[in-house]
Amino acid sequence: MKFGWIKIDGDDWEEKKEKVKMALESSIPVVVADPEDIEKIKELGNIKVASHSLDADIVIINKNDDINFLKKAKELGKETAVFIPIEGKEDEELASEIARFGFVDNIILKGEDWKIIPLENLIADLFNRDVKIIACVDDVKEAKTAYEILEKGTDGVVLSPKSLEDIKELSKLIDEMNKEKIKLDTAVIKRVEPIGSGDRVCIDTCSLMSIGEGMLVGSYSRGFFLVHSETVENPYVETRPFRVNAGAVHSYILCPGNKTKYLSELKAGDKVLIVDKDGNAREAIVGRVKIERRPLMLVEAEYKGDIVRVILQNAETIRLVGKDGNPISIVDLKPGDEVLIKYDESARHFGMAIKEKIIEK
Where is the 3-dehydroquinate synthase C-terminal domain (predicted)? Predict the structure, then answer.
């Protein structure tokens, strides 16, 4: 996931305060600030501060500072970072060396004469290292370039904003960069059958959904059905555009990062994926989970010879998404209908996709 930090500098505290407040409002997680501003920043809200101080949440040193200062920070349980201006090849080599120290979490790079090539080299060099590469940028356009270098891009950026609008634009860019794209396929309905009562889960999120959006849920880790949100006008109940009536408690739900959880595990504050009919995915925060006993319906579909299933509440307002992108109530669903699913050949171990043979039926 891409992230962004905001650099808070200058002599005027009132100007710096406004930048911190905008960072808070824009869900920017970290500000980079002078040590003397740490306490005042903390009074403004719950935001992390990166600074050259052991009182900071993220302790930064410059390339020529005593490395033992960073070791001490790590011993205190702090996140760590090293700031390296890239003025020549030797600085690039230094960054590569420091990134291999086990107590360095972040490498912050500022290109002087060259901005792209050193980042390309270090991204390739440190591809599988457990260290985050962060680029210093002067505007949102530079941030986008940094995020996209060599496709993988930098993990984050430190933006020196020229205006409060820059902070909002960076937040929008991060949201856009972190969107996932899910490959959806079509499965053919084979059976729709009432099976009695059981516990089902409604997921109420802190986001509003629109027609065509829902969540990917399934009884098996290899087959997730796109269960539509309660956004469709109907004569029975008011719409609940923040809700997906997702199915029985045992079901898997696809979460950010291609991870899964059981519906019964979800709680307020967890993150789930909202997915639309075209496979565009965005994160949403769970605000509430409601588990209630309701009549259930078994839905069975075939995908390339394989049978996948989902168990949903038996009610008119519960819908899957058809091949054409339109929602279909499960009371109208019949054999031969085509619905959208995500098929995955991976098995799951504690929600993580793994290459292992598993039989689910």
Answer: 187-361
